[in-house]
């Protein structure tokens, strides 16, 4: 798994590629937590390059969302496709997270 | 019944990718779709992580994964010698509540049951045997 980070206005954009599973999810968790502790609270996660997510990845996303929600923060998503999109759907994550077809559309939503 | 491949490794997280790689080799050979291969990978990972965390919570041990063909189905048998743990009796998570109310656990087992065509559990002596059944491509409508 690789995580690319860049910032546009107040939004931290994290592009995740590879697999987010029980082995790699802790690294994603740590990366985002470090950013939260530095004051970031709005995240756009681009999953276009992600080809696998398991419950370990979903759990980590939920924990991060629970952490920043009370601080008026938000995590939104773009680039959902194939098995990753299906897993978000099956787990009911599409009803608790905003998702967009493109980074541009996601950024415009703020 | 025909055994395609099997692997026995220490039941810990750093064995995960080797086991997934073995299973995926079999699913590719069996010409499952890309989507179905991903779903099988998820189910196997969830089952293994449960074994690492719960069956072997108190002690170390091995896990054996066997891929086979049985009566036209692709079957993955996952065997451990940890404490009895029947995932089929686990409570289903609530997947409709909002972020703050949503509970963090239970999703892995939920995904196994959703993604597999059949899931069976039996305790044989001191072993847990979990059987994941996937219908072969072409057999699913």
CATH class of chain B: Alpha Beta
Give the spatial strand order of the biggest sheet of chain A.
1-2-3-4-5
User: How many runs of DSSP E, i.e. beta strands of chain B?
Assistant: 5
- N/C terminus separation of chain B: 24 Å
Low-confidence stretches of chain B: none
CATH topology value of chain B:
Heat Shock Protein 90
Shape of chain B: globular
Helical content of chain B, roughly?
A: 25-40%
Describe this structure in words.
The complex is a heterodimer of chains A (about 110) and B (about 140). Chain A is α/β, with parallel strands linked by helices. Chain A has one domain (about 1-110): Transcription Regulator spoIIAA (2-Layer Sandwich). Chain A has 4 helices and 5 strands, in the order ββαβαβαβα. The longest helix of chain A is centred in the middle third of the chain and has 14 residues, at about 55-70. Chain A is globular. Helix content of chain B is about 30%, strand content about 30%. Chain B contains 3 helices and 5 strands; from the N terminus they run βααββαββ. A 5-stranded antiparallel beta sheet of chain B has the order 1-2-3-5-4, with helices on one face. In chain B, β4 (about 120-125) and β5 form a beta hairpin. The model of chain B has no long low-confidence stretch (mean pLDDT about 95). The chains are: A alpha/beta (about 110), B alpha+beta (about 140). At the A-B interface, β3, α2 and α3 of A face α2 and α3 of B.
């Amino acid at each position: 798994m690789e995580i690319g980070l860049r910032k546009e206005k107040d939004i931290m954009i994290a592009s995740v590629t590879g697999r987010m599973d029980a082995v790699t999810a802790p690294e994603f968790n740590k990366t985002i937590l470090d950013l939260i502790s530095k004051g970031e609270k709005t995240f756009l996660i681009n999953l276009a390059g992600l080809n696998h997510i398991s419950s370990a990845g979903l759990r980590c996303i939920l924990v991060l969302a629970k952490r920043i929600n009370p601080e008026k923060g938000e995590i939104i998503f773009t680039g959902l496709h194939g098995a990753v999109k299906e897993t978000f759907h099956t787990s009911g994550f599409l009803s608790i997270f905003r998702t967009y077809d493109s980074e541009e559309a996601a950024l415009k939503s703020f | 019944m025909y055994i395609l491949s099997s692997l026995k490794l220490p039941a810990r997280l750093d064995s995960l990718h080797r086991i997934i790689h073995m299973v995926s080799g079999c699913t590719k050979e069996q010409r499952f779709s890309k989507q179905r291969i991903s779903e099988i990978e998820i189910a196997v990972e969830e089952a293994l992580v449960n074994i690492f965390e719960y069956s072997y919570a108190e002690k170390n041990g091995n896990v054996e994964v066997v891929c086979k063909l049985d009566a036209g189905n692709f079957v993955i048998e996952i065997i451990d010698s940890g404490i009895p743990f029947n995932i089929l009796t686990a409570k289903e998570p609530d997947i409709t509540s909002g972020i703050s109310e949503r509970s963090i656990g239970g999703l892995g087992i939920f995904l196994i049951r959703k993604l597999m065509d059949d899931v069976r559990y039996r305790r044989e002596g001191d072993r847990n045997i979990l059987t994941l059944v996937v219908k072969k491509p072409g057999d699913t409508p």
